[in-house]
Amino acid sequence: MQQPVVRVGEWLVTPSVNQISRPGRQLTLEPRLIDLLMYFARHPGEVLSRDELIDNIWMRNIVTSHVVTQSISELRKSLRDGGDSNAEYIITVPKRGYQLTAAVTWLDESDIKDETQVPLDATAPGIAPVVPTQKPSVQAPATQKNRRWFANFWTQCAFLLSLGVLIAMVLLTIVRPHPQVTRSHLLLNPRDIDVRFEPGASCNNWVSQQSYAIGLGTLITTSLNTYSTFMVHDKTNYNVNEPSSSGKTLTISFVNQRHYRAQQCFMSVLLVDNADASTMLDKRYFVTDSNLVSIQNDLFDSLSSVLAQPWPEDMQKQLTRLKLSEAQALAQFYQALQLVSIGDAPSLNKASTLLDSIIKSSPDFSYAFAQKTMVDVLRQSQQPFDNQQLAALNEELTRVEQMPEIQNSAVLYRIKAIDYLSKGHVDNAYDAINKSIALEMSWLNYVLLGKAYEMKGESRLAADAYITAFNLRPGENTLYWIQNGVFQTSIEKIVPYLQTFLINE
Questions:
Q1: From residue 80, how far is each of 20, 25, 76, 208 by CA, in Å?
Q2: What 3 state SS string does 195-260 have?
Q3: C-alpha distances in angstroms, 30 versus 34, 376, 441?
């Protein structure tokens, strides 16, 4: 059956091929974005709440609000592509939802054919007017000659006019002292924060502290996403410099600064309000092995103050787990987490070895043991263990389930989800990863949720989960996990939206 076709503003929406088009422009969108646009088109001028959109588009399978927010943002970006950057198609109605403001016209097949056969504009520069063909008739030779003369005359005038316009444009380009800048206005979300990392080109020892800085950024991202009303995007692994709708940016970098008559390398933490470029937080820390925990505590206290966001008790318990008696253990732990984020077999092997040494030096660090168990389960899913390795892994699984500190934790359910996925127990994996997400909103959890949906045969829901994971932590590492974590996933078939980022990376 022929699917309906609708014109939204200047765009012709063809859901059968997941395309929107306008004169000189054609885009292919995610199927879910097409579904969202068609639902708006069926309710023009109505204010649609997030819950209504989730009920009708996502079927309440993923009820997190950031999925809706991201989809609306991507749809707005696509509708503005190639047109007026200031045009508003979908507006946000505070505390109510979203509203389609563009004109909506439903079309049939005859309308579509008429749209595709647009005649050339006879008045356009450089294009001669089209003279209708008439039946030959007997005319006076003088009359025919005059008509040919007039046709040639106007053709030459049109050519000269086009040439004059072209020369004028070239001269303006040469003479103008500054290139013309087209400004696009982004609607900034004050509850969104980008976390970025900048290497310290002027510092000699910043590389040794890189893992700690990136780990600190990841901890901030996961903690605020889980326990606060802010939506944080970990862009410490994302090198693409593109406009962002986030209202705030937190940058962790390494800078040289004079300290006691000498130049020393400091870790700088800068929080900027992008609405007015004002500085909300500016701290510099001299990082040593002995003060890693104190820096972490001071930074979270400072963020709580400037963001007016008190930390709940559960979050404080999470931070307490990282207060280690052995100072070096925390730095090594962040190194291991960075290796885990890379995701390939050599990195996971290094992470397992490093976590094992942490456990030996800090046997009370139960969270490190849980992370090692998770890494070993991942290793086994990629390269099956021999009998001896498998027996050791089973002992780890038994022990981690018996640890009081790990009971009902996100990492424990994540371990179970990976183990179930590798064994093909799809329903058990789905239940386990949803329990983990309820306790921790992290990019890795949403990657595993996508894997569970993919094994259930629900490709669209898998795509939603993968896009959410990439939104939480954009970059090549997350893409690698989506493609290769637990089992191979085809970006082209499951989530073609991310192909753009594959090209950029």
A1: 12, 11, 6, 44
A2: EEEECCCCCCCCHHHHHHHHHHHHHHHHHHHHHCCCEEEECCCCCCCCCCCEEEEEEEEEEEEEEC
A3: 6, 35, 24
DSSP line for 306-317:
HTT-PPPHHHHH
Summarize the chain as % helix, strand, coil (round to 5): 55, 15, 30
| Residue 203: DSSP 8-state | -
Going residue by residue through the chain, which has 505 residues, state the pLDDT in tens, using 9 for 90 and above.
Answer: 456 788 988 889 988 888 888 888 888 888 888 888 899 999 988 999 888 888 788 765 555 666 788 788 888 888 877 555 556 788 888 778 888 888 888 886 556 655 544 443 433 333 334 444 444 444 444 555 555 565 566 677 777 777 777 777 766 656 554 444 444 456 888 999 999 998 876 677 777 788 999 999 999 999 999 999 899 999 998 887 778 889 999 999 988 876 555 567 889 999 999 999 999 999 999 888 888 889 999 999 999 999 999 999 888 888 887 777 676 788 899 999 999 999 999 999 999 999 999 999 888 889 999 999 999 999 998 888 999 999 999 999 999 999 998 999 999 999 999 999 999 999 999 999 999 999 999 999 999 999 999 999 999 999 999 999 999 999 999 999 999 999 999 999 999 888 877 654 4
Angle at 460 between CA 459 and CA 464, to 5 degrees: 115
Residues 1, 74 contacting (CB under 8 angstroms): no
Instruction: Please give the order of strands across the beta sheet that includes 47-48.
Output: 47-48, 97-100, 90-93
CB atoms closer than 10 angstroms to residue 211: 18
Amino acid 328 reads Q
- In the numeric block, the tokens 């996971």 are attached to 348
Which tokens go with 457? 């045969």
Q: What are the tokens at 194?
A: 């980008």
Q: CB of 249 within 8 A of CB of 196?
A: yes
Q: Two tokens at 272?
A: 């900027």
Beta partners for 252? Answer: 197, 269
All domains in the chain, ordered by first residue: 5-113 (1.10.10.10), 189-320 (3.40.50.11830), 339-504 (1.25.40.10)
Reduced 3-state DSSP string for 421-441: HHHCCHHHHHHHHHHHHHHCC
> Strands across the sheet with 5-8, in order?
25-28, 19-22, 11-14, 5-8, 104-107
Strand-pairing partners, residue 25, are: 22
